[in-house]
Every structure is written in C-alpha cells, then in structure tokens.
Description:
The longest helix is centred in the N-terminal third of the chain and has 22 residues, at 8-29. The strands form eight sheets. Strands 19, 20, 21, 22, 23, 24, 25 and 26 form an eight-stranded antiparallel beta sheet that branches. Strands 10, 12, 13, 14 and 16 form a five-stranded antiparallel beta sheet that branches. This protein has a four-stranded antiparallel beta sheet with strand order 2-7-4-5, with no helix packed on it. The protein is mainly beta. The protein starts with a helix and ends in a 12-residue tail after the last strand. The protein has helices at residues 2-6, 8-29; strands at residues 42-45, 48-53, 59-64, 73-79, 82-87, 94-98, 105-111, 118-125, 132-137, 144-150, 155-162, 169-177, 180-182, 190-192, 197-201, 211-220, 224-231, 237-240, 247-255, 262-268, 274-282, 285-288, 294-297, 302-306, 316-333, 341-345, 354-359, 365-373, 378-386, 395-399, 403-408, 416-422, 430-439, 442-449, 456-459.
Amino acid sequence: MKFLTENRFGLLGPVLAALLACYGVASVTRPEPLPDPAPGLRKVPVASVTAVCPDSGHTTVGVVTPPGNGGRGVATLAAAGGTLTTLESPGVLRREKVPAGSGSLVLTATGSMAAGLESAQTRRETSGRHRGLAGVRCVEPAASTWLVGPGPAAADVTLHLANPDLAPAAVDITIYGGEGMVVGDSGGTIILKPGESRTIDLKDLAPSPLVMAVEVRTGSGRVTAAARAIMYGGRGVDWLPASTAPATRVVVPGVPGGGGRRELLVASVTEAGTLVEVKALTSDGTYALKGRELVEVAAGSVAVLDLSKALADRPAALMLTSEAPIVAGLVVTGTGKKSDVAFTSGADPIDLGSMVADNRTGGEKSSRLLLTAPEGAGKVSVRVVPREGAAPEPFEVEIAAARTRQVSLPKVDGAFAVTVLPLPGSGPVYGGRVMDERIKRGLALTVQPLAAARIWALVPPMTESAATVLP
C-alpha cells in the first residue's frame, strides 16, 4: 500500500499514454463525416398560370379557382379586343359566352387565383357541321404536346397553336399515320412571335392518314397546341385532348358506356415496333379483352383496335403496357341516327386533385365522372362549385382496386364546376368527365380526361455556382 501511495504520480504517465494511444486509433479508424445531403426539389404553391382557350367563338368558357385559397390574387380572361372578365375570389365560377370571331382567349392568373386555376370551353350546336357537344380544357404552354385521333382523310382536322409567352417559339410538327411517319409538304420550322397564334389545316401537311398521332415540339420557347376534328359525313365534332408523353404503361380513362363505336388508337413513336397488351378496367374488374389482348404496332405508326363489342356498353378505362414507348387515344361515337363523336386519351393520375370547370345536369343533360383505381383502392372527395346559390355538401367516393366506378353528378341549376380530391391512403386514381345531352335524332357528347390540378410546382434548389447553368 505504501508503494502504491508513493508511486501514484508515477502511474499517471502510463495511463495517459494508453488513453492517447486509444484516441489515436479511434481517430484513424473513424469514418469521414457524411456530406450534407444535396438539396432536392422544393414543392411551392403555384403563383402564376397562363392558359389558352383555342378558337373560342360561339363557345361558353368557364373559369374557376378551387375554394379555400387565401391571400390576394387576380385572374383575367382576355381576347384580342380586350378583357372579357376578371376574377378575384377563389371558389367562384365565372362563365362567359364568347361571340364569333373572337379567336383564342388568353387566361392569366397570379397569387391566390393561380393555384388550381381551371378553365374549359364548350360549344353546343343542334344542327350544321358543328352539330353536337365539343369541349376542351384550356391548355397551358409546353415544350411538347401529343394529340391522338382521326386523320385528315377521315375528318377536317385543324391544329391551333398559340405563343402566350414573351419570347419567340420555334415549332416543329411530326405526324404519324397508319403506315408510318408522315413528312409534311411544308417542311421547316414555324416561328411564332410573342403573343402570336396560328391555325394549320393538317391536310396541308399530311392529307392521307385515316388516323394519326401528332407531336408539337418546340426547339425554343413554349406553345399551346390543340386540335379540333370535324368528322366527315356529319358524324360529329370535338377537340382532341392532350395525351401523356410516350411511355411503356399508359392508362386511358373516361371510356363511357351506353353503346356506339369505341376505337382505340395506339402509336409507337420509336424506330422499333412493339406488341401492346390491352386490359379493360370496368366495374367488374380488370380483364384482357377476348381476341383483343394484344395489338401489334409497327415502328413509327398508328394501329387501330375496334373495342365496340369487347367493352359491352360498360364504362371503363384501358390499361396498355408495351416494351417500347407509346401514346394512345380513344374515339367514342354516340348513338342515334345523327351521331356525335368524342375523344379521350392517355392521362396522368390526379395525385394533387383535379377540377373540371364546365358541367351541366338536369333535363336532357347529364354529367358524370368515371374514376379508375388500377392499383390499390382509391378514395376521393367530390365537391360541386355552382355558378350561383349554395354548394351541395362534398361527398366521398370509394373505388375498388383494379375497378372503374361511375359517379353521377348531382342536378344543379345551371352550369357548375366539380373538384375531385384524393383522400389520405388512396391509391392512384385516374378519371374522366363525360357530359352528354339528348338532342334531336341522337346523343351529343364530349369527354374530358381529368388532368392533375395546377396547385404545386417543383422548384430546383438555388445555388451561387455558375456550373448549374453552364454546359
């Protein structure tokens, strides 16, 4: 004990040496600190929206922003001759009858009026070459737009282009037909000045296709693109909705029941042909169509599949899978001695919700939703926004997995908008709005695939480094 007491300070040196040795080993073997994660895309509310309603003469245009948005904002609908209407309150549906010769309308919105802003135009005629219902969602400018439908050999197809931006746009048009890619006679690139719009008769570019897929692509700038098809022989008129970009899995929602022809158009836009598997999603489940399970699409061409009997009058959606990217659309022909035509196309799921700005019910008019949940079960809230009066209570709709459900919209005095919002826990939901009316000698109809609401935008991270903008 005396030895330990006398040498306690002598032991301190070996202890310190041992501790320093352990610290040295730990320092050498300690892993390098993980770098801070790179900042990702940020989700921010949409603060500005521009959309164009094409060739709006003789139409009724509906404009609405979902209720519930706070803060200040304004939305303006303008024609070449000046402002038609201004909105400053979310949750208020404004409808304007647009006189003939008005051309395209430009809709702009900022602040609280921008997030979720929707607009659509509808034309109703009971006679003449425009007989029927023709409706289209007013579209925002994009670098690429795909349209699928009848070609100039089957219909009078007019392409409407507009450049609402402040920079010029250089536009190229590619057309695919049943026998492959079609080269237009005009050739070259179309330059649209800021604020300029232009119409193109597609028979001047490609007179022979019975069916077609069209890509409108910009090398610089952005444009809006929409196409109206007036079927020959008085077989109806409608606008072609924009399709999703080429993909190996495409869902075409909003296929109405009720009889009439149903023709699926599938385009392969690569240098290789592909086999496309086709499945129908109905209220009874998902199944391969007997004798129509596969469709062969040659490289750079459009194939047609008659599904009139296979769908057996039931509301449905179509799910297409292939090895090569495809785009798809569907031609719907109504019943009666004087038929009308409508179109639907490949669409995205409505993860952020969706809104349709123009719907009508009551009397001979009917509007309904066709909602599809191709994967897990879906659950949505449906809310009606009337033009006047109190709004009905929102109601919930459940869609079984791998099913399509038809939802009749309530009878409302006058036109109204409808909002569809997926609820927590819902699987992906696709949809379409069908609007029809019994008019003399036949059924008039139009279909609008549900588009994801313009509520949020993904913004890349900001940095001070010039490397992010240099090639």
